[in-house]
């Protein structure tokens, strides 16, 4: 399997397929706000944004979308046939390597995603009530605060 970064032009062409995959394989755990942000985002995957696909030949095993370092939206989805292979960990680490920082929110009832965030080296820094009314953790990469403070200068 290999991770492929999707260009802005490719994103514009395949956005509908990506969102369908996320809805079909996300088991209802991706918020409507995150899906809406992905739908409304233009094809400009610059400045802290990236779409990664984990491919098994020509078949998508998983994907991860990061918009504005996760401040606008971030989500990851793995096809049921590929779960348990730490695909999410690989995708998150690649985002951090390529973009420099990563953040996401995960409901505390979503145990599989919580495990993957901790395994990827993310740190939970806040607990709040999420958009679905559930307690939700904010995760950030170790470099998150330093990258964003440097970008704001």
TrEMBL record:
Protein name (database record): N-acetyltransferase domain-containing protein
Originating species: Paenibacillus gansuensis
């Amino acid at each position: 399997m290999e991770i492929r970064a999707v260009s802005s032009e490719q994103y514009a062409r395949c956005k509908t397929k990506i969102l369908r995959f996320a809805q079909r394989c996300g088991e209802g755990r991706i918020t409507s706000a995150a899906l809406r942000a992905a739908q409304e985002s233009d094809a400009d995957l610059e400045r802290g944004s990236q779409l990664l696909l984990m491919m098994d030949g020509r078949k998508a095993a998983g994907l991860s979308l990061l918009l504005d370092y996760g401040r606008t939206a971030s989500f990851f989805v793995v096809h049921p046939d590929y779960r348990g292979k730490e695909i999410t960990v690989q995708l998150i680490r690649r985002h951090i390597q390529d973009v420099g920082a990563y953040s996401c929110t995960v409901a505390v009832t979503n145990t599989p995603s919580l495990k993957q965030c901790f395994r990827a080296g993310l740190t939970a820094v806040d607990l709040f009530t999420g958009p679905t009314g559930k307690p939700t953790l904010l995760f950030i990469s170790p470099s998150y605060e330093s990258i964003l403070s440097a970008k704001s200068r």
